[in-house]
Each structure stands twice: as structure tokens, then as C-alpha cells.
Amino acid sequence: MPTFKKTYYMNVQKTVRTKVNKTRHHTKKVFHKASTHQLSSTIPLPLVPIIEEIDIKSLSHLDILLPDQSPKRIELGRNELIIGRDNDCSIHLPLANASRKHARLFVKGEEFLIEDLNSTNGTYVNGVRISRCTLRNHDQIRIGEARIQFVQQKFRA
Amino acid sequence: MNKTDPVKMYVTFWGTRGSISTPGSSTEKYGGNTSCVSIHHGDTDIIIDAGTGIRNLGLELFQQTEKHKNQLNLHLLLSHTHWDHIQGLPFFVPAYLKGAKLTIYGSPKKEVFLESILQRQMDVNYFPVEMNALAADISIKEISEEKIVIDSVVIDWQEQIYHPGGCVRYRFTAGGKKIVYATDVELDQMFNLKNPKNEREKLKKEYCKFISGADLLIADGQYTAEEYPDKIGFGHTSIPLALEIAYHQKVKQIAIFHHEPQHSDNMLDRLWCQLSPKYSSSGHHMTVFWAREGMTIPV
Known about the structure:
The complex is a heterodimer.
Chain A: H1 3-33, H2 36-41, H3 47-56, E1 58-65, E2 72-76, E3 81-84, E4 91-92, E5 103-108, E6 111-116, E7 123-125, E8 128-130, E9 132-134, E10 139-143, E11 146-154
Parallel strand pairs in A: 3-4
Antiparallel strand pairs in A: 1-2, 1-11, 3-5, 5-6, 6-9, 7-8, 7-10, 10-11
Chain B: E1 10-15, E2 36-41, E3 44-48, H1 54-68, E4 73-77, H2 83-86, E5 101-106, H3 114-121, E6 137-142, E7 147-150, E8 153-160, E9 167-174, E10 177-182, H4 187-190, H5 197-211, E11 216-220, H6 239-248, E12 253-257, H7 265-275, H8 278-281, E13 287-290, E14 295-298
Parallel strand pairs in B: 3-4, 4-5, 5-6, 10-11, 11-12, 12-13
Antiparallel strand pairs in B: 1-2, 1-14, 2-3, 7-8, 8-9, 9-10
């Protein structure tokens, strides 16, 4: 797990814990006064498990189709990925019309974004040349002859 | 953002919805925020319209200024002052930053001064903070010159009468490229044969000349052809007409903008599949897309 996520996760837990503690403290007063309004606003909710559920249930992947190759699937986490022709790219595209470091895919908040790295032939999302684009489910990314589909499943139940 | 090419203009859509903000899962792809577009060129930041989309732009600019420790110098051009083009301004973080500079431009053809319209939306009955309490250095200008020049960006503008209360269209030229922002106009009226010929011809010619050869045209396309007959006089264009005119004027790329609040992502996708192939297959190629929040286009 990258450091960013860990820190963020810990902060969330800490904040929630503080809120829950405050709520517990307040609950004592509520039962003394027995006010309906205070009762309804002070029932301690198990917020930490809810937040964990939301975090876990967002799954994203890329389906990559290259000429004369079988399709590849790459599951996405919160790590930045560099896409390009160089061997050290996180997603290596052995294509003459892809730049060495062609594009990067990264997470901002809860969203995945793709950004062109000043490539020669451009990065396209649904046929439009972009500099940067927030990705949505089933967006078609084109880099040279590579066809990449972004798939995201969100579960907020 | 990644290091940008100083010659290019980078257009970002922050709000693409017309009339009223439309949040929800069915509008997630194209976005539910109302009109706001930014153009970044070199060190120049220009914003067009202050619909609810400007809130996210403000947050992004705030993050950048915190990171680079620079002071903001922003130019906001308003097409008109209907709610969906100004309602985000009280939520624009840079307006609250001491040291930030914000120049707001708008049409001189209002019955009341632009400054008073913007101040009134921040009256205590509508909003808890009054405009004169904003910490940024804000100046409000009614455009008087034929052209506005902001650093190396030249901006032409024209009044559009086919929208209730009027609306201004803008053309941005830099590095030999042209971007036109022409929303909130009922082209169906302008190109309607029933309207008096002399007036219509003059306005048609002006519009066509203004958009001719644009590298990117951001165009009003609120209605489908089927919806339009029930919306006559509302001041918005049917999508097929906007596309046809742009194609004949050799526009290179058109972003259909100001989406009808009732149009879901699925519907906009279906419309794009129906209407766009015609313009990419033969003769002059015009890229057709539906403007969507969070997308930056290099021009």
C-alpha cells in the first residue's frame, strides 16, 4: 500500500475515532435530559466499518489491446502508472508510434486521471486528443495503435 | 498539470451543464456543474463564465498557489449574467484570497451595471458573505474596446441577440490558433427563414465569420432536433444545426456544450454515436465531441 493511502486511511480512522468519542461523551447527557432531538443526533454509529466498506468496493482496471497480441488486464490501485515505449514504464507499449514516456495515469481524490506527457502522437480519450482527462467507466483510450479501455466498478451499497 | 507547451492554449471544462446544476450518477460522465471553462496559455489564466463549475477550478487554483507560492492573476469573462453563468462566483476560493487579483469582464449592454448585478447575487438575503467582504483585489469591467488583449491572448467579442437578455460570444487567438466560446444562442432563430431577411442575413454572416476556421468551437447544443419545437424562444440551439453550421465554416473541432439538464450520460452518448460519424468520414474532417467536466484539450 503506498504511503499516501496509508496516511490518509490513518487520518480518517483518527478523525472518526475522535467523533465517536465525542458522541459517546455527549450520549450520557442525552439520557439524563431525554430530549428526542438530542437522542436522534447522538446515537453512536459504527462509522469506521462503513468507510472501510466504501474504500474496498471501488474496483478499476484497464483492458489493453495491442496489435497481434492477446488482450491484457491491469488492475489499478492508487500508484501512479507511466505508459510508454520505454522498458521501464509501468505499462510497456512496444509500439513505434508511442513515445518513450507517453502518458501517466494517476489518482486524485477518488478519481482516476490520464495525462499526456507531451507525446508526439497524442493521447486520445473517446477520439478526442486530450492533455488531461478524468476517466469514466468504459472510456476508450488510444495511444498509437494501442486500444485501452478503462473499466470502473463502484459499490456504494 | 504536467509541464505545458507555452505556445498552446489548454482548454479545461469545469462545468458543461445548462440551466441548473444536475448532480447524480446519471450525469457523472459529462458532469452536472453549470458553465465554466478555463484557458491556460503560458502564464495566463482566463476563465469563461462562473457557473457552479468554477468552484472546482477555484480549489485547483488554490492548491497550485499553495504549492508554488505564487499570487493569482485571473481574468473572468462572463457571457451573460443568468444564474447558470454566475452562481458559482460566491464559492470561488481565489476571490477570498488576499493578494489574488481577479478582473471580471462583461457586456456593456445591460440595463443595470454589471457590478451591481454581481453584488446583488451576494446580498445577505441570498448569501451570507457580501461581495465587498471578499479579500481579493476584484475589478469589474464592462467591455468598451473592440478587442481585449490579455498578455499574448487577443480576445474578440460580439453580442448575441438570440438569447433572452442577450449574451456575448468570445474568440481567443494565440499562437496562431483560435478558440470560440459561443453558448446561449438560438441559432435556429438566426437561421430561420421566417425571420426578416435583412436582419437575419447580417447576423448569420457575422456568426459564420466569427466561427470560421476555429480550431475549437464551444457551441450551445442544449436540445435535440425533436425537442427544439417545444423550446422555441428559450435561447438555445438544436444540436444538428450547430454541427451543420460549424462543419460548413470549416471548424476543426466542436465541443457541444450547455447540456440540457434532462439529458443523461447514456442519452448524450447515444446522440454522439448518431450524429458524429457524418463529420469524420468524408471531405473536411471535424472532430465532434460532447464537452465533459474534467477534460483538458490542447489547442
